[in-house]
Design goal:
Layout lengths: L7 H17 L6 E3 L6 H6 L4 E5 L2 H10 L4 E4 L2 H6 L10 E4 L6 H8 L8 E8 L1 H8 L8 H7 L1 H6 L1 H14 L3 E11 L5 E10 L16 H8 L2 H13 L13 E5 L13 E5 H9 L20
Parallel strand pairs: 1-2, 1-4, 2-3, 4-5
Antiparallel strand pairs: 5-7, 6-7, 8-9
Amino acid sequence: MAKDNSTGGEKIALRREAVRMLARRGVPLVVMETHGGNGHVAAACYGEDGCVFDTDQVKSGVLARTRPTWQVWQGDCVRGLALGIGKVLPVTLLDVDPYGDPWPSLQAFFGSERAFQPYMQVCVNDGLMKLMRLAGAYGCGSLAEECVKYGSDGVRSHYHEVCRGKLARIVGGAGYRLDTWVIRSAGRNGTLTHYASGLVRVADRVKLWEPPHHHRGDAEHRRYLDSPGWKARSRRAILEAGESCQQCGATGTLQVHHLTYERVGQELPEDLLVLCISCHNAIHARMPAGSPGAARARGSAGRQR
């Protein structure tokens, strides 16, 4: 795919804003850059801590010379991330700029074992719109699920919505929810999509399994979910969340997930998380088999948990 270098200024502006948001929170900047390229964007935005990939030997050599304090890897970033390269780095900004499909890189990073931080930023330069104009969404393997939902033409017309939902599902697997979200079309004829998100990690306070003595048992728990008290409490949580999923922003059928069972019947706002069915199922799917609630959300549209 021919590279569109017309949006360098926009990419820099997006990443500088991400760096500023980290600074406002007092979060140190540690970068994972999946496609180093000529290094101009990083030179304009980043500091001395990071890890960068590039498949080109010459470019990798230049990156190694110009970033002596960084880890520089020559090779495929998707395979490298999946193998855990850079896993000990406390990455707080993930920069994905593949001039094409960003989703394998995002999945490899968030699907691997690494030192995930409580808060981080993700910046993406997505080139799939150009490929979709040439071959349709069905030609993009990463969008197979979205093609089923929207159809090939629908994926293109709803691509901003697709990006937000797909990113939310991927980062949700690592315990994050979207906190801030910016997306815009860019490039020649809108063939590039730039987006950035602040991510807050909730898995460090989500108890995916609690010992049985903390749990009230399935029968008693079901009775509690049918009680007027829980219905009022869960409805209040949904209203306070703006009637949208706190992980991906979806509206429609929503459920309320317990982050802890320590105060069942007297839940505090921070004990609960409002989720769409898809995000709720993703959390329960990560629970160990046989643990309380492991299959609780699946197949139960509209039921709060």
